[in-house]
Amino acid sequence: MKVLVTGGLGFIGSHTVVELQKEGYQVVIIDNLSNSSIEVLDGIVAITGKKPIFEQLDLRDKTKVQGFFKQHQDIKGVIHFAASKAVGESVKKPLLYYENNINTLVYVLQELEKLEIANFIFSSSCTVYGQAEKMPITESAPVQKAESPYGNTKQIGEEIIQDTCKINPKVQAIALRYFNPIGAHQSVKIGELPIGVPQNLIPYITQTAGGIREQLSVFGDDYPTPDGTCIRDYIHVVDVAIAHVIALQRLLATKNEINFEVFNLGTGTGSSVLEVIESFERVSGEKLNYKIVARREGDVISAFADTQKANKYLGWKTELTLDDAMLSAWKWQQSLNKD
Ligand code: WQD
């Protein structure tokens, strides 16, 4: 059975392609390589021994998208990762984010409608909750005004899918709201490849320990949390990838109760920045060079998932721990340093 993964050479996309291939699906990847590299394809093959079909294509080109779907009318499902995802960059370049994250979603959905391909999995984000009132955060927590154009594109994306599913019962969709995906595949063949200075905590930690960055800056320790640093729900990327396959299989087996469902993907446990650093030092044996600096604009104090809905309806829960994720991230960084 053929499944399309857009953004399939990206961080979460590539890990999901591996899990799809392990389940016996034939995978077609579309990626424009704007935030990924072709070597990731070799990493996937090295893990599974199977080469996905790869099309380098920019989904902002509507004609190319139409041409692609004409070629692949036997696609049974689509997992849509392709999007720009740097919160800070989105503030500086809003139109690039609206064009790349919204237009591409519309063009893909238009083709799904035309070909009557149901089964659409959308890569969403916990950023839609903003600073939620109550922890842990459930899927019924109110979506709050986005703090960045990036977060807004995820909110708008979910609304576009909601409206499409409302009018077209043939489109079956699930949005997965990730918390903080981290780590790398245990094979050390694929992992996170941040371009330039990492915005996210874990790659900055591993690059600091790997001697690429001088020192980690911890953005504030004066928050109303037990140790003063922000709390997040750090989830191993392999657990996130497995959840995508399970969500797709839910749609393929028409087990979904309504034709647009939303699930949080998290561990259900919050970890502070200092706890993440402590986990890294414990599993790596490295002493991390860091200093406390001022808060970062736009950071929420705390965000971690209520996982009951995904546990119950997807029959999915995380298997890997924060330590597993930090060790895999460190091994991945060490392998990158060798190249
Ligand atoms: C985590 C914590 C920082 C870097 C990201 C994505 C967002 C969504 C969720 C995809 C915060 C602190 C960070 C550093 C630090 N993912 N930090 N020093 O902001 O929770 O959101 O994951 O949809 O789009 O942006 O992740 O890793 O940037 O920050 O102290 O050098 O680490 O203040 O408390 P965030 P992050």
Describe this structure as you would to a colleague:
There is one protein chain. This protein has helices spanning 11-22, 39-48, 62-71, 87-92, 94-115, 149-167, 201-209, 237-252, 273-284, 308-314, 322-338; strands at residues 2-6, 26-31, 53-56, 75-80, 120-125, 173-178, 180-182, 216-219, 231-232, 234-236, 260-265, 271-272, 290-293. It is of the alpha/beta class and 339 residues long. It has 2 domains: 2-182 and 234-265, NAD(P)-binding Rossmann-like Domain (Rossmann fold, 3-Layer(aba) Sandwich), CATH 3.40.50.720; 201-231 and 268-338, Alpha-Beta Complex (UDP-galactose 4-epimerase, domain 1), CATH 3.90.25. It has a 7-stranded parallel sheet, sandwiched between helices. It has a two-stranded parallel ribbon with strand order 7-10. A two-stranded parallel sheet has the order 8-13. α2 (39-48) links the parallel β2 and β3. α5 runs parallel beside α6 (149-167). The longest helix has 22 residues, at 94-115. The protein is globular. The chain starts with a strand and ends with a helix. The chain binds UDP-4-deoxy-4-formamido-beta-L-arabinopyranose (WQD). Residues 85, 87, 125, 127, 178, 180, 199-201, 204, 216-219, 230, 232, 273, 296, 299 line the site of UDP-4-deoxy-4-formamido-beta-L-arabinopyranose.
